[in-house]
Amino acid sequence: MTEALLLREQNPRSHRWVLLADEGASIWFYLTEPNGARPIADCWLLNTVPAPTNLDAYRSAKTAPPATSQYAGAKSQAGMPSADSVRFQWSSDGESVAVFISNELLGFIASGRNRGYSRHLIAEGPYGQPMDKSLYASLFS
Question: Given the DSSP bridges, would you call strands 129-130 and 86-90 parallel, antiparallel or unpaired?
């Protein structure tokens, strides 16, 4: 049995943590408050199962659900990434963070926003927002 993926890194400037977590049927990442473990923002990255049409089967789960087909793009399902394929990129102030898997930008959380931006989202909703490359460039360049 494969162990669930859980990666984390703390920014030395903002003292916030980024956590990337295998939630069972999906991969999410979270940004915490400074010096704490409480997430203040989240971002869905990809599903590890086909996108469901509804979440009935996941309602009793104690983990974040997969993105439904209403929000997830056609290429939103992938296998579990390896820990060494994941890289975090922090903004210079440490208040925003991006996640790359195999050198591909999959998502980012912008300072002051509780939902992130994901490469595989096709519509804004409970999973976050579609990728905004100009916002990414302004935060991380």
Answer: unpaired
